[in-house]
Amino acid sequence: MKAGPEQTASPSATPKMATVSVVEDDPRTRAILSEWINASANFRCKSSYGDGKLALEHLPADQPDIALVDINMPKVNGVECVRRLHLQCPAMLFVILTVYEDAEHIFAALSAGAVGYLLKRSSPEELIGALNYVVAGGSPMTTVVARKVAQSFQPQPATAAADTGLSPRERQVLDLVARGYFYKEIASELGVTLNTVHTFIRRIYEKLHVRTRTEAIAKYRVK
Q: Which domain, by its residues, includes 26?
């Protein structure tokens, strides 16, 4: 965690003390993040959890101002964790901190309710600066992440979901993809093999005339 997110603007007002909960499965990273937060002037670490399931159980009661969430975690992945918590705790601000910088993960996280998307190569100063930016109403992202977000919202051919020709099962698979599920989790959810999920995905791409998960989700949601 060395180089980091770049903000295009810096809020002038100094934010008040805010609480942060860390959701990260690696113990060492979790401890480092907690230390960085507690060493800052404007934040304190309220709680930390090693998987999404524990976060879902405890964060509604913890009520931190910000939840700093990893994506690749056991039991419940970070995107699904954010999606569920965002519905329960609409005032809570969610920031993703991950190694993933591909458009699919970015799009899924932001669609789930995250207000920021940072990479784990962030330095302490950059992380705390990003948290200050969030409290002030900003949405911190690295330059590469911001670019990919912009590309994800390029105009798509208007195709109504009802006209895509997807079967009910294919729609179910695509809905889970849009909610941030990984393919293994979709297989478990539907009680099918991973190969079967890949077959569904291939058929979905063919019917929607797309080549990526991001394009499939965007086109499917056009009404």
A: 18-151
Determine the Cα–Cα distance for residues 73 and 112; give it in Å rounded to an integer. Answer: 16
Q: What are the DSSP E strand ranges found in the chain?
A: 18-23, 43-49, 66-69, 93-98, 116-119
Q: Are residues 147 and 93 in the same domain?
A: yes
The C-alpha atoms of residue 28 and residue 192 are separated, in whole angstroms, by 35
Residue 186 CA, chain-centre distance (Å), reads 17
Q: What is the pLDDT of residues 148-204, one digit of tens each?
A: 666 655 554 444 444 568 888 888 888 888 887 888 889 888 888 988 988 888 888
Provide the whole-model pTM.
Answer: 0.64
- φ/ψ of 93, rounded to 5, equals -100, 130
CA distance between the termini of the chain = 41
Residue 7 belongs to a domain: no
Of 151, 179, 202, the domain-final residue:
151
| pLDDT tens-digit map of 42-87 | 999 999 999 999 999 999 999 999 999 999 998 899 999 999 999 9
Do 101 and 209 fall into the same domain?
A: no
